[in-house]
Amino acid sequence: MKMLNLKKSTLATALALSMILSVPAALLQPTGSVYAADASGTTASIAEVIKNQQSDGGWKKDYAVTSGDWAKSTIDNKATYTEIRRLAAEFKKTNNSQYSAAAIKGINFLLNLQYANGGFPQIYQSSGYHTHITFNDNAMINVVTLLDEVANKKGDFSFIDSTLAGKSKQAVDKAVDCLLKTQVTVSGKLTVWGQQHDSVTLKPAGARAYEVPSLCSSESVGIVKFLKTRSSTTAIAASIKAAEDWFKAVKITGIRVVKTADDVVVVEDPSVTTPIWARFYEIGTNKPIFVGRDGVVKYKLSDIDQERRTGYSWYGNWPSSIVN
Predict the structure, then answer these.
(1) Confidence class of residue 37 from pLDDT cuts 50, 70 and 90?
(2) Which strand (E) or helix (H) includes residue 14?
(3) CA 49 to chain CA mean position, Å
(4) Residue 39 scores a pLDDT above 70
(5) How do beta strands 315-316 and 277-278 pair?
(6) CA-to-CA distance for 244 and 2, rounded, in angstroms?
């Protein structure tokens, strides 16, 4: 086995790795890593959910934030669509119309949030990268999945009237059209999707400094899975096949991604045949890319700063659920 780009200063790390090379080929983050927490609505009481619904019908990610874009209604980190689901379930359990009314107001917010081209931004009436069509963390796909249930009056949404169900169906249809139009074409060949796309040009767009325009394996899996729930058309079938072909073409074998006490290190191991994928691939070359807070693209995980190596999911097995 060969360590990738380990410097002399990391001798202790290399020795430690010799004790843990049996770690599965999936990214395991150091225990000290900090990640964005799920939105407040995932753990708040129903009373708090009702209290924190905003005048536009949505919810902010962190109920405690009072200014800036993050004080606006959003679909980031499970916000808004989680509150709607919880309210619908509570109405079904209690038959209290306060909960159904709040859920309906939330659904109408999602319909208002949608762009004419079918995409959904991360934050309502926001600025900067928050305006991009956001596939990151499956935000748009989770919203469209909910609206599809509303359209079919499925599960806890059996109380929805036909008018709102019809509007939700139209929104889902528009979203599918957006998914097909945003799939990235390289040299005339369909590939997959970016983590977010410009709301006007529909091209992959950057967000935070370390999230540059690229092809994203993680979020593309969620899109493919959703497309597979749709009635097949020539366009949908071609989209799914192209994405699956791309996943197969860029899979990575022969490495382990290993955690230490304070780092994440890539180790060459030819015996590893179970594939993993990089989260981001360079458009046009399909090379895995890694980016630190300086925004500079690197081609090896070891070349970015330690804080970003340990603070982001750069490798994973996301496509394994749909391709061999």
Answers:
(1) confident
(2) helix 11-17
(3) 24
(4) yes
(5) antiparallel
(6) 31
